[in-house]
Amino acid sequence: MKILTADEMRTADRVTTDRFGIGSLDLMHNAGRAVAQFVLREFPDQRHICVLCGKGNNGGDGFVAARELDAAGRKVRVLLLGYPADLKDDAKAAFEEMTLAPVLAPEEAALDSSEAGSALSSADLLIDAIVGTGFKPPLRGVAAALRDRVNALRTPVVAVDLPSGWDADSRSITNEGAFRANAVVTFTAPKLAHMSGNLTGSAAGPIVVAPIGSPDEAIVSATNLTWAGSSKLLTEQPRAADSNKGLYGHVLIAAGGRGKSGAPAMASLAALRAGAGLVTAAVPESILTSVAAIAPELMTLPLREGPSGEIDKSNLEPEQLRRLTERATVIAMGPGMGPEPEEFVLGLIEKTTQPLVLDADALNILAGHTDKLDGRGRTVVLTPHPGEMGRLAGISIKEVQANREPLVREFATKHNVTVVLKGWRTLIAHPDGRIAINTTGNPGMAKGGSGDILTGIVAALLAQHPDHPAEAVEAAVYLHGLAADFALREQDEHTLLATDTVGHLFRAFHFRSWDEAGYVWVEGIPSSAARSR
């Protein structure tokens, strides 16, 4: 799914009307109905609804939603920031189709009226349809005053398109000048702000995209940005009835060192749970027993150790290397290795041809040897956090965070690799310059071991889908974060462990981002019954 700027969204709407003959008022009707249907489904207990409407097209969407909710039996009041005579074009037509008498608030003082106060205080749900994608901050006058009142309430808010006051093209995680929101319903495609910002004030969302009639041909993006969750479709095909383990790849996890058995164990467990046909943990002999204990299904291979208990370079000798790699379809390397096995890491990269997933200490070792990175002829995936990315690029963490998209795009294209830059809105940059943005995950994942789990999932998805490596990596990142979101429903951000996400991977695999109503859940999990295959 493409990510659009505000200008691109306006163009998509115009092309839909001019080229494909779908009227702009029809698009407004579809948008308003989508908001109403979402409210009826996700907020079934909220009976008294106040729809806050501006004078533009966002307000028009609100008028349609109000009409639909009234017809569905909800008690609806409309608070219009202006006069009916101020309305034009489609917004005016939508208003005239609505039989509800609005409460008028053309200026700040009107919010102090008993009628306006009653509309706000009696509502158990607010719909924010004041300004949308085309608005440029800041809010002023009555809109700003209403924002302050709404933000002081505890009443849940559903935002139409965007929380009013938030710039659709914003890359900021927060915007103090905007309305708060508990959910966002946008249309046609997500905008940059949906992908970058914490629009709902919670990492769990929800933010949904509703189709309103624009065909794919009308949706054009120049940013080369997409939503990572689209690639989950790769994992939703059932396995063949005559499946065997050989069809789903053999992942080799080369990792660990003395006193660091947890990292390879977690990566191996995640690879098993994410569906790889076979998983072998190749680790220093002294920790093999500990790693093997993570799961009876895990195979192990003891490696020769150096003086500090690290993987020794002698494991690259021809016979030992053949034994290590001959059956592997994907090699993951790095977790828990420490800095010592530099020659092993660089040698394994040079002497193998299988797809590689490089994380943790493998990345730190590569920081001084990026000339060794060349993904031409095979898939190479790097999964750095900002510190590791800074070391690879030779810049500070602050510089990484200030230039995430251009940095990963340049690095990925220069070295012909896929870069998964972890953090808030993890980025997946591909060798062809495309970047996918992930919207799953939560602060509870800021714990040791989360990266090891991701390494295993990425390797497992690559092993199962060798012909679709880009989609496999994007799906892996999405599933990892979604599993953590499911885990958080039963835990707290403080108590969530990296391994808890593995226990919820099955929920992530079952989850469908596209639901029967046509909504695409780009962030969050429905409060209604869980959807599964």
Structure description:
By secondary structure, the protein is of the alpha/beta class. It has two domains: 6-223, Rossmann fold (3-Layer(aba) Sandwich), CATH 3.40.50; 245-523, Ribokinase (UDP-N-acetylmuramoyl-L-alanine:D-glutamate ligase). It contains 19 helices and 18 strands. Helix 3 packs parallel to helix 4 (89-97) and helix 8 (262-273) runs parallel beside helix 16 (450-464). The relative contact order is 0.11.
What is the CATH architecture descriptor of the largest domain?
3-Layer(aba) Sandwich
Number of helices: 19
Which whole number gives the mean pLDDT? Answer: 95
Strand order of the largest sheet: 8-17-16-15-14-13-12-9-10-11
Weakly predicted, low-confidence segments:
529-533
Distance between the first and last residues' Cα: 21 Å
Q: How many strand units? A: 18
Reported for the largest beta sheet, the result is: 10 strands, mixed
| Morphology | elongated
What percentage of amino acids are in beta strands? 5-15%
Helix content: 25-40%
CATH topology of the largest domain: UDP-N-acetylmuramoyl-L-alanine:D-glutamate ligase
In the CATH scheme, the class of the largest domain would be Alpha Beta
- CATH homologous superfamily grouping of the largest domain: Ribokinase
Class by alpha and beta content: alpha/beta
Query: What is the C-alpha radius of gyration, as a whole number of Å?
Result: 26 Å
Domain unit count: 2
Question: What does the secondary structure layout of this molecule look like, with pairings?
Answer:
Layout: H1 6-18, H2 24-42, E1 48-53, H3 57-71, E2 75-80, H4 89-97, E3 103-104, H5 114-121, E4 125-129, H6 141-152, E5 157-160, E6 183-187, H7 192-196, E7 207-210, E8 225-227, E9 250-254, H8 262-273, E10 278-284, H9 288-292, E11 299-303, H10 318-325, E12 330-333, H11 342-351, E13 356-358, H12 361-366, E14 380-382, H13 386-393, H14 397-402, H15 404-415, E15 418-421, E16 427-429, E17 435-437, H16 450-464, H17 469-488, H18 498-502, H19 505-510, E18 520-523
Parallel strand pairs: 1-2, 1-4, 2-3, 4-5, 5-6, 6-7, 8-17, 9-10, 9-12, 10-11, 12-13, 13-14, 14-15
Antiparallel strand pairs: 7-18, 15-16, 16-17
